[in-house]
Design a protein that fits this description.
The complex is a heterodimer of chains A (270) and B (333). Chain A has 270 residues and is α/β, with parallel strands linked by helices. Chain A folds into two domains: 3-216, 3-Layer(aba) Sandwich (Rossmann fold), CATH 3.40.50.620; 239-270. Chain A has helices at residues 36-52, 67-76, 94-106, 129-136, 193-199, 245-258, and strands at 3-6, 9-11, 17-19, 24-26, 32-34, 56-61, 80-84, 114-118, 141-150, 154-161, 164-171, 174-178, 203-205, 225-230, 239-242, 262-263, 267-268. In chain A, helix 2 packs across helix 5 (193-199). Helix content of chain B is 29%, strand content 25%. In chain B, helix 3 (80-94) packs across helix 4 and helix 5 (227-239) packs parallel to helix 8 (318-332). Classes of the chains: A alpha/beta (270), B alpha/beta (333). The interface between A and B is large, with 81 and 93 residues.
Chain lengths: 270, 333
């Protein structure tokens, strides 16, 4: 069972802040982490490999520093890692990103039996790239999987979709995107960092290695453009009250009375 | 059969597997009506399944000019690849300008694959859609970049301009039994996906939270600090006859169940009053509460973005205020 896991390095979102004057993201002091659901995908891949044999290849497209995420994946037990990087790849929307990753996966030898991705990322949260890679690779796709069982030569998976609990069988090769519920393990064991950082080579592929032309990747290969970034406008000018806890509670009670949620004389209106 | 020109307008994918999905479809038909009027074109809704006539009638009553319907036994269960085999050739034949789907589980699985096959752009989980008066392009507003930002996305050269849309951001039109529209059954060649087999599908056995219908919603964020503190919100909600909602970090910490998630990947609420407690106001959360008639926010940080959208902002520690507030309310009962 050879498995490719697609991962993405994302900003550690709780620490993201905007420079509201320059309309840029403040990157100083913001740590990058492996997208949490991609961790889950990696953990699932390692489990399957340990039971069925084969290898786990981790792949990411991103700037050179994405190598850190791949090193971390190797430390956790991945067999090899591929960094798809190059200036031409930057500014890609999901159409262009899925194209580059699909081409990279199709170059893997042997071609993986299974491609796993996190169901969505914490940064742009489109959930597009998984199904779009499946389309380009002509693989069956199942999104939002929370249980995987390996059978003879197919998988039985479960997922929750629009309020329905679905059990599906899928032949291999296939592409699955996975949710948090798949693994109870929140953190990967750190593994052997020394191996990760000294012995293992990380393969690097640029546009030429993949036979990609500039017009099919990055900004030029994208169908969508971001016209404008904005912070959500102030909804309305509200009152901002500071003061003792009792003062604040009094303001809130008055608001409840104004809205007739709380009646001024006799307690509640139903 | 119509000329293809009649069918090139604003398309809406008809998603009807449950009550909620049907409502989202009707919301999109209403928005498509508005966009189509600005573009001087038609609203075309799609209805795929084994028996879809009742849905087609419903779409006409809610504002669709034309319904493109396909009935086939293999379309009975929602299957991405099978549905692509019908819809992609329709798009290529009839050339819609805009194509919308609800950001339901199915919409978010189906549209990326379809957009890729059509080699066009797709934006995810939009919270606003407008037509740019100068270019006529669809302006697709989507929250992104870690939740602090709204991005306005356009698809300049590729067609159709595709978007999935967050449930609950648009209002459906009233059912008009006298509305006139055409229901067409174009030729289809259904190619079923044989690599994926649906073995079992059953409705999830959980009570439907009344969150979306509540007049008062108490929304808690990570600033509450612990599960015990979060649980005070149930007491407050009970006193105000409201429901409790939560931000994503709260769900992630396991303080409450996922059904209470508000925002981009959760529920959209429009209560008379929303009290936001200990949430800084990331866009991924606030997109779910912006429709509230009144917002009161409690947060320690006076710079917290949540105060930009609050009618009343209280700068203070939630865990100090909550017991005082609950006590004050108890006295009023």
């Amino acid at each position: 069972m050879n498995i490719a896991v697609c991962i993405k390095q994302v900003p550690d979102t709780p620490s993201i802040r905007m420079d509201r004057e320059r309309m840029t993201i403040i990157r100083d002091g913001v740590e990058s982490v492996i997208n949490p659901l991609d961790y889950v995908a990696l953990q699932a891949a390692l489990d399957l490999r340990d039971r069925k044999g084969g290898e786990v290849v981790v792949i990411t497209m991103g700037p050179p520093q994405s190598e850190e995420a791949l090193r971390e994946a190797i430390a956790a037990g991945a067999d090899r890692a591929i960094l798809v990087t190059g200036a031409a790849f930057s500014g890609a929307d999901t159409l262009a990103t899925s194209h580059v990753l699909a081409v990279a996966i199709s170059k893997l030898d042997p071609f993986p039996d299974l491609v796993l991705c996190g169901a969505h990322t914490t940064d742009s949260d489109t959930a597009h790239v998984g199904p779009q890679m499946a389309e380009e690779l002509n693989l069956p796709q199942i999104c939002g999987v929370n249980e995987i069982h390996m059978e003879e030569d197919y998988l039985t998976v479960k997922r929750l979709s629009d309020g329905f609990v679905e059990t599906l069988q899928v032949s291999l090769p296939a592409l699955l995107t996975v949710t948090q519920e798949l693994c109870s393990v929140g953190h990967l064991p750190l593994g052997d960092l020394q191996i990760a950082f000294s012995e293992r080579e990380i393969t690097q592929w640029g546009p030429e290695d993949l036979g990609l032309k500039e017009e099919e990747v990055g900004l030029r290969g994208s169908a969508t453009q971001v016209w404008k970034l904005s912070v959500p406008p102030p909804r309305r000018e509200g009152d901002l009250i500071s003061g003792s806890p009792q003062t604040l509670v009094d303001h809130l009670i008055r608001k409840l009375e104004d809205l007739s949620i709380l009646d001024e004389e006799d307690g509640y209106k139903s | 059969m119509d000329t293809s020109h009649d069918l090139e307008g604003v398309w809406v994918f008809g998603d009807y597997r449950n009550y909620f999905q049907n409502r989202v479809t009707l919301q999109l038909i209403a928005k498509a009506r508005d966009l189509a009027d600005k573009l001087d074109t038609r609203v075309i809704a799609l209805a795929l399944g084994d028996k879809v006539h009742q849905w087609a009638m419903e779409y006409v009553a809610h504002g669709a000019d034309i319904v493109l319907a396909a009935e086939h036994p293999d379309l009975k269960s929602y299957q991405v690849e099978t549905y692509c085999s019908v819809v992609a050739p329709w798009v290529e034949a009839f050339q819609p300008q805009v194509f919308l789907a609800g950001a339901t589980s199915f919409g978010r699985e189906f549209f990326p694959r379809l957009a890729k096959r059509l080699h066009t752009g797709l934006s995810a989980d939009c919270v606003a859609l407008e037509i740019d008066p100068e270019t006529g392009l669809l302006l697709q507003t989507t929250p992104g970049f870690g939740g602090e930002l709204l991005a306005e996305i356009v698809t300049p050269d590729h067609r159709p301009q595709m978007a999935t849309v967050h449930p609950g951001v648009f209002q459906e039109r009233p059912h008009d039994p006298g509305a006139v529209g055409r229901i067409l059954y174009p030729d289809v060649d259904v190619v079923p996906e044989t690599r994926v087999k649906l073995i079992r599908s059953k409705r999830q056995q959980t009570r439907q939270a009344k969150l979306e219908e509540a007049q008062v919603v108490i929304a808690g964020g990570r600033g509450l600090g612990s599960k015990e503190n979060f649980e005070r919100l149930y007491e407050l909600a009970e006193l105000l006859e409201g429901e409790v909602g939560a931000t994503r970090p709260v769900i992630g910490s396991g303080w409450t169940d996922k059904e209470r998630l508000l925002g981009q990947t959760g529920k959209t609420v429009k209560p008379r009053l929303l009290i936001s407690i200990g949430a800084s106001g990331a866009v991924q959360y606030t997109t779910g509460i912006l429709g509230s008639e009144n917002i009161v926010a409690i947060n320690r940080d006076p710079q917290a973005p949540i105060f930009n959208m609050a009618d009343l902002g209280l700068v203070g520690d939630a865990n100090t205020l909550l017991p005082l507030l609950i006590e004050a309310l108890r006295k009023r009962v």
